Amino acid sequence: MKTAESGRQEGFGHVVPLGTLLAVFAALIVLTGITVAATWVDLGSANLFIAMGIAAVKATLVALYFMHLRYDHPFNALIFVVGLLFLTLFLGLTLLDTRQYQPEIQAAVENPV
Amino acid sequence: MNDLTALAPHGVSAQSEQGHHPHPDYVAHHFDSAEQQFDAGKLGVWVFLVTEILFFSGLFCAYAVYRGNHPEVFVYAHHFLDKNLGALNTAVLIFSSLTMALAVRAAQLEQRRALIAFLLVTLLCAFVFLGVKYVEYRQKWEHGLLWAGRYHATGQESNHGPEAASADRGAAVAAGPRAGETTPAVPPELPPEATASEDAPRLVGVFFSIYFAMTGLHALHVIGGIGAVTWILARAVRGDFNRFYFGPVDYVGLYWHLVDLVWIFLFPLLYLIH
Amino acid sequence: MRRRLATDRYSYSHGQGTLPAAMKREALSHNDTRGGDTRGGADRRAASAAQAARAVPASRGSEACDLRRQTGLFAWGLPLAQAGGSFWLPDPASTTAHYTDYLFYAIFYISAFFFALIVVLMTVFLILYRRRDSRSKADKAPSHSTVLELFWTFVPVCIVIYIFAAGFIGYMEMRTAPPDAYEIRVTGQKWKWFFTYPTGYVDENLHVPIDRPVRLVMTSRDVIHSLFIPAFRLKMDLVPGRYTSTWFHAVRPGEYPLLCAEYCGDNHSSMLAEVVVHEPGRFEKWLEEASNFMKNLSPVEAGRILYQRQGCAQCHSLDGTRKVGPSFKNAYGEPVRFADGTTAVADENYLRESILVPDAKIVAGYPPQMPPYQGLLDEDKIAALIAFIKSLSDAHADEATPPADADEAPAPDASP
Amino acid sequence: MDHSSSAPVDYLHADRGIRSWIFTLDHKRIGVMYLVGIAASLVLGGLFALAIRTHLAIPALTHGTTPAASVPAVGEPAAVAAPEAAAVQADAAAGLAAEGQAPTAASTLQETPPRYLLTPRQYNRVFTLHGAIMIFLVIIPGIPAALGNFVLPLMLGAKDVAFPRLNLASFHLWVIGAVFFLAVLFTGGLDTGWTFYTPYSTTTDTRVVTAALGAFILGFSSIFTGINFIATVHMLRARGMSWFKMPLFVWSLYATAVIQVLATPVLGITLLLVAAERIFGLGIFDPKLGGDPVLFQHFFWFYSHPAVYIMILPGMGVVSESISTFSRKHIFGYRFIAFSSVAIALLGFLVWGHHMFTSGQSRLAGMIFSALTFSVSIPSAIKVFNWLATMYKGSISLQTPMCYALAFLFLFGIGGLTGLFLGALSTDVHLHDTYFVVAHFHYVMFGGTLVAFLGGLHYWWPKMTGKMFDETLGRLGALAIFLGLNLTFFPQFVLGSRGMPRRYFDYSLLLDRHPEFAGLNVLSTAGAFLTGLGFVIVVICLAHSLWRGRPAPANPWGAATLEWQTSSPPPKENFLRPPVLSESYDPYYLDDLEYDDKTGAYAGVPLGLA
Prior knowledge:
The complex is a heterotetramer.
Chain A: H1 18-38, H2 46-66, H3 74-100, H4 102-110
Chain C: H1 21-36, H2 38-54, H3 63-70, H4 97-128, H5 146-175, E1 182-189, E2 192-196, E3 202-203, E4 206-208, E5 214-220, E6 225-229, E7 234-238, E8 244-248, E9 254-260, E10 273-277, H6 282-291, H7 293-296, H8 299-309, H9 312-315, E11 335-337, E12 343-345, H10 348-356, H11 379-392, H12 401-406
Parallel strand pairs in C: 1-5, 4-10
Antiparallel strand pairs in C: 1-2, 2-3, 5-8, 6-7, 6-9, 9-10, 11-12
Helix pairs in contact in C: 1-2, 4-5, 8-11
Chain D: H1 11-14, H2 18-22, H3 27-62, H4 83-93, H5 120-139, H6 142-156, H7 164-186, H8 200-203, H9 208-235, H10 248-280, H11 293-326, H12 334-347, H13 363-391, H14 400-423, H15 425-431, H16 435-465, H17 471-497, H18 516-548, E1 594-596, E2 601-603
Antiparallel strand pairs in D: 1-2
Helix pairs in contact in D: 3-5, 3-6, 3-7, 3-18, 6-9, 6-10, 6-16, 7-9, 9-10, 10-11, 10-12, 11-12, 11-13, 11-14, 11-16, 12-13, 13-14, 14-16, 14-17, 16-17, 17-18
């Protein structure tokens, strides 16, 4: 490793402490366990929201600690959030429309041409 | 993936360190300082990650549309997916995310051997992940649980193909290792109710289309990740990184975490349907 | 292939108003008798076709067209000279057309005003402040004024809200069919329209009553098409695997073009049909007559109509020329070589099988493009078609008549 | 800027040899290479356009006249056929309606020679490739990649874009994409329209997979440019250049980059799914396998509407620069124009459904999309009014770039306003998929973006090549293109509103009822040739300047933006010393620049530039 010429001047970019990384890892594994366990309990449509909730928590943990969003320039976090926003926009309006015209597809399935 | 920083040697660094050589060779000529170069690269990678998110958004949208409008298909079809392999894969990927994060940390602290070790473990995890995926795909291939055009599940003789035409086409075209359709090899670990319902819903082929599209594209990204990590490993061995220049390790790390992030959502959506 | 009802249909300027009264009556009367009494229909059509065929090429059937034809090398009739409708829009002929026309001209005048404003201001500034010696520099003028900005944000917002509202109200009217609408099913396939009437009768033109709203329930057999009737300001796609619906209520008898507006392949531009709006009370009579053409006509003539209406004409010629499919001329009774090398004599069973499941045997050198008619044609329709094909082969022309006459189909067929 | 004798070598002569171009990392050379590639694609696309227009004039010219060589009715029937059969035959032969007239053998599947220029299959391939080449190869990369790559770092006072190698990769991907399109051209063409609508695109026998992969690769080229510009604008602005001291062209490129990054990936996945549909029978869009074709339209238009803003925003940026510079006046409402660019970029993502009002989209979605569509028209209106306010009390000189800017105002005015007809629900039902739409988007894309591209090209030509072009030739070209454009596309508005659908190979069957279609189509064809002539004049003017143009001064137009504060053409490192801006610097404050008759250039250093 070619260390920088000058002395031990601290490099930039935040070094995530080892403890935090391991803690986050443990949390992720536990959450995976929970989400798998949740499928044995039948709560109807709530299951989807629970699964998505847990996945969202895991995703935020990865993003904040593994991907340094917590320590970096906030603009990077903004980029990430904007990406998710446009994802939901695309899904939302498309879902709205496809759900509206679904009966017309069902009619064609029942008595095809 | 794409090495975002240029390493042309010369150029004037405004906030130059006192060293005799003001502009170290790892800072590109058009950047003023290593930190500016690092921040620019980080910004570029985050923008690239957004394009990846929106690239997968198409498949998430197809998933949402077909699950929203045909929930029974997803409930029926997900029985064919093996939850345990899925969970194992999730754990493998999360672990590889940890080792990647540790690798980035090692690069920042100029611990070269640790960096190389963590990168190797990450690669290993990636190959394990692909191995598990191969097992799953092979299992589906054997039972004909393929995408809509090729769907012809064995073990259920009912006309589960959306239309006779596609089923014939599926049968006629289903080359691949299996002999005829005679062996009703219903996957052993299927819960009883999965085989009980004889008439699979009309769109079950579309579920597998979405399943293969999502997991296939994700697997391609894992392979891409393997390529990138190997490139970083090679440069680490060559000793390119130091505490002022560890950008590439961080960027490949970010890309790898995103691939893990996508799987964190894929796993419950495909495997844990209730 | 340009689909025309029959050779003798008159086509005249789409607006009824333009024709001298005498000519209109004559065109209309002919229009109805043509469809109305099918017994004589075939003969009448044959006669008028002959007359038209011999007619001098330049002169079309209707005098109105001739007048315009003679006016120039080609029809330069710019819309201004075009009677009926306005400069921008063709003659409206449905109850909901006024929504489109009203909003079109509202937006037109708004746009014209703002466009004129922009162009006038631009030219005035250009002339007033052109660079010249006495004016080599710009005058001192503010480079920012929030009031002005708010003004030319607020005004456009109000205008577009009005435009949206008007557009939305009209749209909901156009897309909500009245409950008592007369339902006709429309099926589109590559380059042909099929209109299925409640009696199960299938025609390739849209005949509608004038005294009732008509609801079209539409789907496509292959790719996306789009039913476009400019005179009714109506357009709706036909999507395969799904039903889409739209409605209209015609206000004036006459014939209006029906076009395909969504690109659908080679003959997208000739996928035409006619909307024939009948006089009050005439529609039911027409439908009743047309529905049982099978009963009224001899099998060979019924077969000929089926040949035209079911799309055979698209790909099979009658005079031996090769098209998408083999020609019907001298097809019956002759040996046929298939793509897989085997050969067989084209007998009745082969013809029936080729109609129902065309892909079973493909004639060598022809693309397997024929859509299956399984479930679309019932037994006596197939018999009629086979009789017609037999009549086209010189060697076996005589055999065509006896067997088909035996089983006179009593009830009007119910299947589409 | 001292023009000392030992002025550094400019970027064109800094290195020699083809390798120094193909593997250059210099944003200026990459911009020039893009310009050459885009100009070639524009010529190819333009030739297809002329083929289409020539083809569409023939039905008008030959309908109703006795055709010259009257081909005997094909297969004059022998004994059996009654006139009925002859009529049916004429009908079966497709083409001309009138019996007795020689039936055009222009029917699809027959091999007899077409009476028109093209057979239906050829026509469908020509209009598809015209669309695909013009959109994916010319107008999407157009201003951002050719002019943007060259000018953005200069305007920011930077040495290069943030990721030079990514920039070169973007150009190489553009070349590979172009090769894919050429492969499509030479191996059977594409006949799905540039929109790839399924199930037609999944059932046709033309080269859909090759074209889809070509567009996929061009998508990545566009994404890389987007990433580069965002990072450059954020990280490499000159010292002292705050966000509101950036030129408006940089604002428009930034907004464009945001769209490129957020929208193009969705096109990528859509095209991959179409290719998978054809290769594997994936079934997501194929109704026979349970898929939904309208879902494809949602996927496609989620990219393709923002794509039209990728096209127009940089054009608006060029116009903002030109109008301020040639009116010798500070731009009016700088912040409003800047924010309207970003507003258009974001609102552009909410409106894609207005392409699908009649495609089976539900009424609720139609209502929502129509309402949101009108929100996008407001920022465009703001920009136009601000440009007019800039010209107020200016000192306007009609030099070539200003001619193009004013032509843009006129043509984009018509293009934008006719968008109102298509945004309102009840009028769109009548006008959708007719020539009204064709005229609308040509006015906006051709009259807007391409005219602005030519304006920008002339505006920065001295900076790129170090040569001044001849003013009269330049203005003549602008005038010819302006007149040609109006003559070509205004008649199409009338064609469309009177009911002529788009993508029609032959309208002779409609001529009985709509004789005016003939005259309008011939006018449009005449216009197309006039526009073609205009382009020839532009090429002559610019080529002439390369050889016999007088050397260009650093600041020929007297603008205060940074690219004019370095030599023409600029050195490899762009600036001898990186510019430092003080608080008083304003990119549009032009009063410190005096025109010097002797040198024919503007001398003086803009206020606040050290």
